[in-house]
């Protein structure tokens, strides 16, 4: 049963079904939260979903039923590298939060990897790897900014970075070795910022996820 | 405009390998056997404004064929025959990779292969559709709109065209004082045979019938074989960049007759109900 | 005056409707697997399929807007959709209708939420029966909602016109050709804004007001159908629950 709350003679139902344009509340009663907008003193829904009233902060939002796949801050992206710049890569997005996206949009990510990115380099004794990125590598990133209308992603975390790649030398299958990948065919090794779940299996999971 | 966009190299490669691994076990991604066709559904007379129409669903591929009958001049060199024109358009609703605009080479190939299957099998006895020899003949337009593309558009479109043609009613035109008059009456079209096309593709060394768009994106070669009601071959089109061996062609040619007969029975059965 | 009789003595029109009656509308949502959003509408004899793709990248790239998304619309009629065969190449009429449909829908879409992207709306008329632009707008706005695109409101569209000197709702093909005026209107029912208004034909001042008001009534009726279709598609299993809720509020 849905929750009905009585407040100063007004009743708000949390699970009421709403369509775009539906009046939810007046601005004196509630602030407009996610997936809502204000017009002429009333808060209206801009999505298809159920209302969600936060009485503590007097804010109303919509739990949406369906959403167009468009990158938002915090989303996890998987895509392939389409272009390389001196210290940036451009990622063509293929999956947003594990859902396939045919949008053809791109994200940019910095290739400067800090120590905090899940890697512990012993600075004096071990050389700091120079990570290599190549066009075609499959990369996972997280959106942290949508500044200037472009999607900025980071690959600086344990589970982020290259998810899978083929050997640049012979095109063979590769396996992960600490901070590098090794080709099983020709044995060539390259330093890469790899994600913790690097490997073909991970990508096969995505391929099944149409 | 293209039906399958080239995906990035690694993904393409992995998807193909995944598919090949599965194919060696004799199964396909959607669980079908190698020579199993998808479910065929046909709705007749869906467009009331057309003289005949059919909506075909082959798996997720969906095609509407509509027939318009007019009068006009015959084609040059074919003065003793009515004109039959088959066109096809893959609508931009069909898949995210199709852009609106004039048909590209794939779509034109599609329309021409379907047209050839109908024309060369002499499915419609066009010689019966002449009003004045060399001057005025029946012109039958068969226009196909592909509203959902999920592979094997050749067969889906071909089934839509033959279903629409067999179920259509031709308006009866008469010549009175050198003017063409539509009498308002209708007659059945002169159908002689039911040409049915079967398309197969090759991935690795495996031959698959009725491919989905996912399978088509991995294919090396494609072949479409049309047979008529007598089990004779009437049109063949080999497509895509790969090649077939003689044995593979013979195998597909054989199977095209058997499966073609099944489809023919199915269409007849659907038309009765 | 030998005007065709479109309304008989009992007030019935050629297809048996009264002057305040809409044609039968059937709206199905999510008919196309590959599209982000889709709808199929049967509006009388009109059969229209609408697909929405996007938000996605813009081609060619220079068309992209840095601050908002580009809405593109293509209205197209299949060759077999009309009485005489229609050439499949886009005509001037189709290009104009594509434009007015786009402009009718744009105020409802929150374009700012999808910068540098494009949303494509493909309206394909499989069978035309007068009022196809209104049916197209109605289906397109539902398809946009089905695609999960942020919208300020749905857009409902309906035409009214003058036949045999009477103002009638929802003009069909015959009435469009034989009648004396046709006015298609698109409306944002919650925000009470008119986003499409066209007129061809002659109306005097009072007829004009009556016609516009009648069209808006029609839009509200169409909106109820849109609402019902979306509710059934997305909340079908819980709808009975919602009824209880609504009643509780009304108490």
Tell me about this structure:
The complex is a heterotrimer of chains A (210), B (273) and C (251). Chain A has one helix at residues 200-208, and strands at residues 4-7, 10-13, 17-18, 23-26, 31-32, 36-39, 42-45, 49-54, 59-64, 76-84, 88-96, 99-100, 106-110, 138-145, 151-154, 161-164, 174-177, 180-183, 189-191. Chain A is mainly beta. Chain B has helices spanning 9-24, 105-120, 153-167, 213-216, 246-272; strands at 40-44, 52-58, 61-72, 83-90, 130-132, 136-148, 170-176, 179-187, 196-203, 206-209, 221-227, 233-239. In chain B, strands 1, 2, 3, 4, 5 and 6 form a 6-stranded mixed sheet that branches. A 4-stranded antiparallel sheet of chain B has the order 10-9-11-12, sandwiched between helices. Chain B is elongated, with a radius of gyration of 20 Å. Chain C is an alpha+beta fold and 251 residues long. Chain C is built from 5 helices and 10 strands. Chain C has helices at residues 92-105, 132-146, 173-178, 205-235, 239-250; strands at residues 25-29, 37-43, 46-57, 70-77, 117-127, 156-163, 166-169, 181-188, 193-197, 200-201. In chain C, helix 1 (92-105) crosses helix 2. The longest helix of chain C is centred in the last third of the chain and has 31 residues, at 205-235. Mean pLDDT of chain C is 90; it is low at 241-251. Classes of the chains: A mainly beta (210), B alpha+beta (273), C alpha+beta (251).
Strand and helix layout:
The complex is a heterotrimer of chains A (210), B (273) and C (251).
Chain A (H helix, E strand, L loop, with lengths): L3 E4 L2 E4 L3 E2 L4 E4 L4 E2 L3 E4 L2 E4 L3 E6 L4 E6 L11 E9 L3 E9 L2 E2 L5 E5 L27 E8 L5 E4 L6 E4 L9 E4 L2 E4 L5 E3 L8 H9 L2
Parallel strand pairs in A: 5-9, 13-15
Antiparallel strand pairs in A: 1-2, 3-8, 4-7, 6-7, 8-9, 10-11, 10-14, 11-12, 11-13, 14-15, 14-16, 17-18, 18-19
Chain B lengths: L8 H16 L15 E5 L7 E7 L2 E12 L10 E8 L14 H16 L9 E3 L3 E13 L4 H15 L2 E7 L2 E9 L8 E8 L2 E4 L3 H4 L4 E7 L5 E7 L6 H27 L1
Parallel strand pairs in B: 4-6
Antiparallel strand pairs in B: 1-2, 2-3, 3-6, 5-6, 7-8, 9-10, 9-11, 11-12
Helix pairs in contact in B: 2-3
Chain C lengths: L24 E5 L7 E7 L2 E12 L12 E8 L14 H14 L11 E11 L4 H15 L9 E8 L2 E4 L3 H6 L2 E8 L4 E5 L2 E2 L3 H31 L3 H12 L1
Parallel strand pairs in C: 4-5
Antiparallel strand pairs in C: 1-2, 2-3, 3-5, 6-7, 6-8, 8-9, 8-10
Helix pairs in contact in C: 1-2, 2-4
């Amino acid at each position: 049963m849905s929750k009905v709350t009585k407040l100063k003679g007004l009743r708000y139902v949390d699970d009421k079904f709403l369509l775009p344009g539906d009046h939810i509340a007046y601005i004196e009663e509630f602030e407009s939260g996610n997936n809502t907008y204000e017009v002429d003193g009333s808060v209206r829904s801009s999505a298809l979903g159920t209302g969600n009233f936060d009485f503590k902060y007097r804010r109303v939002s919509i739990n949406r039923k369906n959403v167009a796949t468009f990158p938002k801050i915090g989303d996890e992206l998987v895509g392939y590298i389409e272009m390389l710049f001196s210290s940036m890569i451009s990622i063509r997005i293929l999956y947003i939060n594990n859902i396939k996206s045919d949008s053809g949009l791109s994200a940019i990510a910095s290739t400067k990897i800090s120590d905090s990115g899940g890697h512990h380099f012993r600075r004096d004794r071990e050389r700091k790897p120079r990570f290599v990125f190549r066009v075609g590598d499959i990369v996972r990133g997280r959106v942290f900014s949508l500044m200037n209308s472009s999607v900025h992603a980071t690959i600086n975390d344990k589970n982020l970075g290259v998810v899978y790649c083929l050997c640049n030398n012979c095109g063979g299958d590769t396996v992960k070795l600490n901070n590098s990948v090794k080709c099983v065919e020709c044995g060539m090794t390259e330093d890469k910022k790899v994600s913790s779940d690097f490997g073909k299996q991970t990508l096969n999971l995505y391929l099944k996820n149409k | 405009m293209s039906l399958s966009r080239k995906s990035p190299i690694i993904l393409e490669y992995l998807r193909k390998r995944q598919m090949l691994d599965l194919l060696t076990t004799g199964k396909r991604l959607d669980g079908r056997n190698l020579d199993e066709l998808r479910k065929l559904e046909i709705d007749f007379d869906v467009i009331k404004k057309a003289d005949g129409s059919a909506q075909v669903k082959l798996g997720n591929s969906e095609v509407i064929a509509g027939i318009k009958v007019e009068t006009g001049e015959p084609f040059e060199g074919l003065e003793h025959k009515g004109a039959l024109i088959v066109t096809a358009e893959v609508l931009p609703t069909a898949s995210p990779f199709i852009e609106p605009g004039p048909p590209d080479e794939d779509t034109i190939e599609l329309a021409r292969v379907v047209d050839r299957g109908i024309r060369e099998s002499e499915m419609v006895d066009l010689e019966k559709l002449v009003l004045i020899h060399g001057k005025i003949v029946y012109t039958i337009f068969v226009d196909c709109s592909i509203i959902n593309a999920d592979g094997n558009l050749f067969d889906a479109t071909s089934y839509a065209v033959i279903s629409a043609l067999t179920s259509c009613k031709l308006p009866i035109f008469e010549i009175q004082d050198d003017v063409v008059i539509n009498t308002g009456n209708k007659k059945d079209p002169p159908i002689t045979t039911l040409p049915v096309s079967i398309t197969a593709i090759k991935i690795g060394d495996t031959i698959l019938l009725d491919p989905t768009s996912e399978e088509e994106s991995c294919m090396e070669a494609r072949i479409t074989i049309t047979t008529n009601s007598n089990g004779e071959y009437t049109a063949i089109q080999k497509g895509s960049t790969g090649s077939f061996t003689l044995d593979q062609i013979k195998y597909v040619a054989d199977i095209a007759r058997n499966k073609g007969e099944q489809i023919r029975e199915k269409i007849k059965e659907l038309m009765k109900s | 005056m030998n005007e065709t009789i479109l309304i008989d003595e009992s007030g019935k029109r050629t297809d048996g409707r009264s002057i305040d009656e809409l044609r039968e509308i059937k709206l199905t949502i999510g008919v196309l697997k590959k599209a982000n959003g889709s709808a199929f509408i049967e509006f009388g004899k009109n059969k229209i399929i609408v697909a929405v793709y996007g938000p996605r990248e813009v081609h060619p790239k220079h068309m992209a807007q840095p601050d908002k998304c580009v809405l593109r619309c293509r209205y197209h009629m299949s060759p077999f959709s009309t009485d005489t065969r229609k050439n499949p190449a886009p005509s001037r009429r189709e290009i104009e209708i594509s434009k007015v449909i786009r402009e009718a829908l744009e105020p409802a879409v929150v374009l700012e939420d999808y910068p540098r992207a494009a949303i494509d709306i493909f309206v394909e008329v499989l069978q035309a029966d007068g009022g196809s632009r209104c049916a197209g707008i109605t289906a397109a706005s539902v398809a946009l909602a089905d695609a999960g695109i942020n919208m300020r409101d749905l857009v409902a569209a309906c035409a009214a016109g003058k036949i045999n000197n009477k103002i009638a709702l929802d003009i069909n093909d015959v009435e469009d050709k034989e009648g004396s005026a046709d006015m298609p209107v698109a409306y944002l029912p919650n925000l009470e804004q008119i986003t499409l208004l066209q007129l061809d034909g002659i109306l005097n001042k009072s007829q004009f007001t009556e016609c516009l008001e009648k069209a808006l009534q029609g839009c509200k009726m169409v909106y109820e159908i849109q609402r019902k279709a979306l509710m059934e598609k997305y909340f079908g299993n819980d709808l009975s629950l919602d009824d209880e809720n609504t009643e509780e509020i009304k108490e």
